[in-house]
Structure formats: structure tokens, C-alpha cells
Amino acid sequence: MTISFKGAHFPKDVILHAVFFYLRYGVSYRDLEEIMAERGVDLDHATLNRWVSRYAGLIAEAARYRKRPADRSWRMDETYVRVKGKWVYLYRAIDKHGKTLDFMLSERRNKAAATKFFARALEVNGLLRKIVIDKSGANTAGIKAINKMLKSFGCPIPIEMVRRKYLNNIIEQDHRFIKRRIRPMLGFKSFASAASVLAGIELVNMIRKGQFTPGLRPFQQFIQMAG
What we know:
It is built from eight helices and five strands, in the order H-H-H-E-E-E-H-E-H-E-H-H-H. The protein is 50% helix and 16% strand.
């Protein structure tokens, strides 16, 4: 997947540098405007906002199929994010070693959302052996729906479901990187923008974890994702 920068008034590397810097570090758009000006790039914070909203999610989507294989024992949980003054849900899954498997922003926390998230995660990570969740009824129903679907496809062994909250400490700790980065943002103004920015933050977190090309500098890995 190659991301088009056609029509942009700045070079691709300038745009990617600004987007990566915003996603990776705790800076505001106005702070980033000053940083870019120090490097001889004159633009305003509204332009930076548009770049991040437009490109972060596209680059993250391109990266989903390029990460290294993960373990078949998963941990899944959701955390809360404020969008337009309301709480929405960021579904997240990691393997037992802490590697990010997938993520999805949802306006609802119910069986349909959980099922959609599990199906999405299976699409790019393959069949898992076991999943640890909390005691959420929606997540339990979602996994049961996935197992029913797998059985209809001829899969003889269902996904083992473990509902023990203390075993999910690893993903609750992993939420902290995401929460720490979005805290200064004081919420998002639109669901689409929130989904794009959060996907970008998840991506740079995965780069930090060494899930793509270890040994290559993080920004160079980010450039690779953009094609």
C-alpha cells in the first residue's frame, strides 16, 4: 500500500517528520509549529493538525500487515478515550510478551463491537490458541461468536477463553503509553480524527517495541510504512 501525498504543498519527508514527531512525543501542535520553524519550515498548527488527521491512520493501516509474527496467547482489554465530550472505547490486544496485535476505536462497548474487533485481529494475526480477558459480558459474547464462526469454517478447536482480571495486568500496563500520550490533548473533536491519531500513536508504540525492523531508526521505519 502506497500512500499518496499528491496535492501537498510540502515535501513528503517534511510531512512525515512532523507527523512522526507529534505521534511519538508529548508536544502540542503549537509546540510542533515552533519546532518546525526552528528547522526552517514555516507552517501553522492547523496544517499540522490536518496532516496528522489525514496521514496517521493511513500509515498505521499500511503497517498492520507488515509487523513481525506474534505469540498465539493473547491479552485483550479496552480503555476509555474522550471524543466530543463523550467517552468512547479503544479496544486493544497484545500477546503474552507485550507485542501489540491490533486496536480499534468504537463508539460502543457491546457484543457487536467486541466481535468486530476479534475478527479484525484474527485477520492480520492468524488463529490464536488462548485469550485472556476481564469479566466483561460483551467480550465473552464476542469470543463465543468468533468460536461459532470458526466452527462453521471447519476449525475443530475453539479459542480458549480465560476470564481472570489479574492475568490481564500486562495489557493494563500497556495502556499507559497510549494514555500518557493523549492526556495533554484534552480529548478529540471528532471520532474520525481520534481514530486516525490513536492508530498513529499505536504504530509508533509498536515501532518502539521492535515489531517491524529492529536496528533501523524509528523514523526510518515510519517512512517505510508510508511506501
